[in-house]
Amino acid sequence: KNQVEQSPQSLIILEGKNCTLQCNYTVSPFSNLRWYKQDTGRGPVSLTIMTFSENTKSNGRYTATLDADTKQSSLHITASQLSDSASYICVVSARMDSSYKLIFGSGTRLLVRP
Amino acid sequence: EAQVTQNPRYLITVTGKKLTVTCSQNMNHEYMSWYRQDPGLGLRQIYYSMNVEVTDKGDVPEGYKVSRKEKRNFPLILESPSPNQTSLYFCASSLQHSGANVLTFGAGSRLTVL
After folding, report:
1. Are A37 and A91 a contacting pair, CB within 8 Å?
2. How confident is the model at residue A26 (pLDDT cuts 50, 70, 90)?
C-alpha cells in the first residue's frame, strides 16, 4: 500500500534554532518527492521537489534531502523564524501507467516561539 | 497575480441543502483537482480533471460531483451534504498532470454541515 508517514506530528522550537522534519514513504514506483509549507488558513505552497537522482535541494533556509534506497526524506530548517510556524507536508508522486498519483503525508505542525 | 480562487471561504449549512464551491484559476492550467483535509489525515483527492470535459474520481468521491465546462473553472457540488462532509476543502491546479508539475492551491473553503 502506498503510504507517506511524517514525524514528528508536532514540534515546538525557539526562534533561531534549527530543526529537522522526517518523511518515510512506501510508494512505488517512485517519481518524485515534494515538500509543501501550509500556513494556518492558507493552501499549501511548494518548497522543493526532488527526483530519484537528487540527494539534496535547498530553497533559502530550507534544505531537503532524499535517500531513495531507504525511502526517507528530511526537511531541515536553519535559523528558524517566527514565520516558519506552519504545517509541513511531504508528498510523494507515484507513476501509475500513463499518469501520476500523489500521496500526501499528514504533515508536521511546527511552532516557532520567540 | 497567478492564483486559484475558491468561494466561499467559509460556509455553514444544514444536511441535505445543495451547495456549490466554486474554483477558478487564471494560469491556463489544464489539470485541476479537489481535495479535502481532515485533522490527522493527509490531503485526500475527491475528483480531478485532466482537461475540459475530462473528469475522474479520486480516492473519496462519494457524495460529490464536479464539472469542467471551461478550462478556468472547476466547481465542486454537494447535492445532499451530510455531516461527514464537514471538512476543509482545497482546489488545486497545475499546467499539466505530470511528475514535475507543481500544484498551485487555493486558500481553502471551510465547510460545516449541521
Report:
1. no
2. very high
